[in-house]
Fold:
Amino acid sequence: SYELTQPPSVSVSPGQTANITCSGDGLGGKYVCWYQQRPGQSPLLLIYQDNRRPSEIPERFSGSNSGNTATLTISGTLAMDDADYYCQAWNVFGTGTKVTVL
Amino acid sequence: QVQLVQSGAEVKKPGASVRVSCKVSGYSLSELSIQWVRQAPGKGLEWMGGFDPDNREMIDAQKFQGRVTMTEDTTTDTAYMEMSSLRFEDTAVYYCAKALFRGGFDAFDIWGQGTLVTVSS
Structure:
């Protein structure tokens, strides 16, 4: 079965940039989306089709996808970005990354 | 604005069955692709399956085949997920979610609030 691997954790200082990777065989040939999930809440769609943002999502969230790796970038990280992040390609979710804003 | 409202928490014994409902408001269920996702305590997201609205066919993850049934009542705009032969490891929050694109199995832009199913003896 297809697998998507993410780093378990990423730490970032407020105002800095966080990059969260998602790796899978031939991932660049698939569409990737990204979700944010805060404790006790349902996931929130941040990015779809690699780099498109729903209208309500702030511009500091961006995505890219090439080769075997997709990346979610959070620019100018805020304290409220402290959450879990998941990538998804078709019906497969990534392993998840805990982002800690120090 | 589409909203998904799920049924309340359930406690079941091993071997029992559970049915979780997902009421759609603001749109017709027959026009949507509703998928089911679960999350065990402290774990990641796991796609379970859902309906392809174009051919009204249920597609589910191989690991659940035979134990999970997903149905839709378009007269009440309610989707259902029923799981049988429950095991302790089925304890999880179960979500219904709407796919952004009709017929899609990803990019879920609207989620229900989640239903906690606890399997306990």
Q: What stands out?
A: The two ends of chain A are 36 Å apart (CA to CA). The interface with chain B takes residues 1, 31, 33, 35, 37, 42-45, 48-49, 54, 86, 88-96 of chain A (CB under 8 Å). Chain A has a mean pLDDT of 97. The CA atoms of residues 51 and 63 of chain A lie 4 Å apart.
